[in-house]
Amino acid sequence: MKVECKISADYKEPYAVLHINRISPGIADLISMLEKEDTNSPALAAAKEGKTYFIKPEDLTLARTEGREIVCYDKRKNRYVLDKPLYELENMLDIHFVRISKSTIVNIRHIDHVKAGFNGTMELAMKNGVIDYISRNYRKTFKERLGLK
Amino acid sequence: MRQTVKLIIKYILYGISEGCTFFVICCLLFSAGGREDISASIYNDFARQSAGAMLVGIACGTTAVVYQINGPSLLMKTIIHFCVGMGVFYPVAIYLGWIPWFPGQIVYTVLQFTVSCCIFMAIWFVFYLLNRKEAKKINERLRELERSNVHKE
To answer: Which pLDDT score is estimated for A104?
Structure first.
């Protein structure tokens, strides 16, 4: 892969542009690394049983709307309540996160498998056992993020 | 609450558009197939026929909103979708003469209902086969990504 670097004092902030036709695992890692360089991967403040915890994005498996709450689950299936709307979370999280429906964002690295339904739906199971569904509207984006056409 | 109302309205519009599209395609097929007798009976009763198509579209298309709700299992959601879809389609189809109705012949009625259910399930099975193929590809890709991550770690 050809790499071109432009070094100039005019650039106030580092900014990378990749010319690619699909996101391969290596590219995904590179993007994640570059994003972390810039944002320093901020931990998310999440509440559980009256206490506030700081969760690293890489430990977050899934975030979704449950009733009136925005909640997230970690690797051990602990459930936390977040104080940020999903769209804000989506902007904060890196390339490993993808929206699968209007109400859910998942970490691709923590997906165990997907299962076909009888009615055009697709069930998604996380490694920690949490289940959700990939909405038809978001299926294309989901597949693209995996590097599938 | 506002989001839920918006979601339901969106699904109602989806259902109406699905019902109308199916209705227009059927009319086109009857017309192209030279079945002017059927086409004429539809045109003469257009308001009721199109309203029926929209109603069935809402029952079958809009109830797909159930899959957006967290809580009930996939099987339960499928049962709800199927029962509401069939529960509306069957009476509407009989009322508007889309399928023949012989009240005196119980065996024929039961058989007809079973065939309708089988058609519904066959359509779902086709969707399932297409979905299963797609799910298999996604799972293979997930394993690929997992292997590449394990090697890196």
So the answer is: 93
Do B93 and B139 have their domain in common? no
**Quick one: B47 and B74 in the same domain?**
yes
* Nearest-by-CA chain B residue for A100: B68
CATH topology of domain A25-146: OB fold (Dihydrolipoamide Acetyltransferase, E2P) (2.40.50)
| ipTM tops 0.90 | no
Of A108, A114, A119, the CB nearest to B124: A119
CB contact under 8 A, B135 and A114: yes
Is any Cβ of chain B less than 8 angstroms from the Cβ of A85? no
| Nearest-CB residue to A66 (from B70, B127, B139) | B70
A67 torsion bin: left (phi>0), alpha (psi -120 to 50), beta (else): left
Q: Are A125 and A115 in contact (CB under 8 A)?
A: yes
Domain that holds residue B85: 1-100
CA distance A15 to A53: 32
What is the spatial distance between Cα A87 and Cα A102, in angstroms, rounded to a whole number?
10
Instruction: Say yes or no: B72 and B2 in one domain.
Output: yes
Domain count, chain B: 2
* B152 and B86 within one domain: no
Domain spans of chain A? Answer: 25-146
Q: How confident is the model at residue B111 (pLDDT cuts 50, 70, 90)?
A: confident
Rounded to two decimals, what is the model's pTM? Answer: 0.62
Contacts of B131 in chain A (CB under 8 A): 116-117, 120-122
The backbone torsions φ and ψ at residue A62, rounded to the nearest 5 degrees and listed phi first, read -155, 145
